[in-house]
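Colleagues,

For the teaching module next term, I've prepared a clean inverse folding example: a structure given as tokens, and then the sequence designed for it. I'd like students to try predicting residues themselves before seeing the answer, so please don't circulate the second half yet.
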């Protein structure tokens, strides 16, 4: 608003200056009256273009920020993809890890926990307590200041191939990122269609969801899933996560958008999946996870509470 006001005032003064200078030239005989009218007409026609040029500073500044971010991203060090390769996963042990963002206060302090196949472990905590940060560390997106994470045979997670590790894990985030394609494309993403994998996840009970869609798996979801409800988006996110038969499932509020029927369906599904997968849930609703969790821990004040709740 200020830019528009200032540019308007400046243009008025410019026009007055042109008019005064041209009128003076007419009075002293240097310019004809017809030329004066032509000058005024040309100046008036240029006002719109000059205004647009003045206002162009706004998108230019926005573009500069975007370019700065792009160059910052391109200058980041490449992720190291080499390392050990594993095919099975029975446990993930977190031992005394500390973490903070650059220049920030410590989010995780001496945090320890053990996740095992056959057992659903849930971590409770308020928003901003560090739960999601811990899941990012488990995905090897962040690195800890100290402590370590070990998997089978005491293998340090840092020594495991990044590509191999990410092929073993799947995440169901609280907010599902969808693209303007059909349901099938949003499940497999850039992978090839594998009929067996697709049939396996449908047979887990997702056939009801698929059959409820107007055109089944070829239903177009729209930009950011605008054609789907919140619950449908979350079910699609589940299908995407299970497509590769993961050995480690990380679930962030995995039933937050579901109705009671679908919530119970997911609870039963988690109980089936835990026999073959390590399952880690983060949430801030103890009453929800109490139905499915074998162990519940609390993250508060940067530490995991030593108090443990067990449910049968």
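(Answer key — instructors only)
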């Amino acid at each position: 608003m200020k830019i528009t006001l200032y540019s308007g005032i400046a243009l008025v003064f410019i026009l007055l200056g042109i008019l005064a200078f041209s009128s003076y030239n007419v009075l002293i005989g240097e310019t004809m009256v017809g030329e004066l009218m032509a000058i005024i007409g040309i100046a008036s026609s240029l006002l719109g273009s000059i205004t647009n040029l003045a206002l162009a500073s706004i998108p230019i500044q926005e573009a500069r920020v975007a370019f700065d971010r792009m160059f910052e991203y391109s200058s980041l060090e490449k992720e190291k993809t080499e390392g050990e390769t594993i095919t099975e996963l029975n446990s993930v042990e977190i031992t005394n890890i500390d973490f903070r963002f650059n220049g920030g206060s410590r989010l995780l302090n001496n945090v320890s926990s053990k996740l095992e196949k056959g057992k659903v472990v849930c971590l409770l905590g308020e928003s901003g307590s560090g739960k999601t940060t811990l899941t990012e560390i488990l995905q090897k997106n962040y690195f800890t200041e100290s402590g370590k994470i070990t998997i089978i045979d005491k293998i340090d997670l840092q020594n495991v191939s990044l590509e191999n590790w990410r092929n073993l894990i799947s995440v169901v985030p609280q907010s599902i990122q969808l693209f303007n394609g059909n349901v099938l494309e949003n499940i497999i993403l850039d992978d090839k269609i594998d009929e067996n994998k697709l049939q396996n996840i449908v047979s887990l009970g997702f056939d009801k969801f698929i059959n409820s869609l107007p055109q089944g798996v070829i239903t177009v979801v729209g930009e950011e899933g605008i054609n789907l409800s919140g619950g449908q988006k979350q079910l699609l996110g589940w299908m995407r996560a299970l497509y590769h038969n993961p050995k480690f499932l990380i679930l962030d509020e995995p039933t937050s958008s579901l109705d009671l029927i679908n919530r119970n369906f997911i609870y039963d599904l988690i109980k089936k999946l835990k026999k073959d997968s390590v399952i880690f849930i983060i949430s801030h609703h103890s009453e929800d996870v109490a139905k499915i969790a074998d162990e519940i821990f609390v993250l508060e004040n940067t530490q995991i509470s030593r108090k443990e709740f067990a449910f049968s």
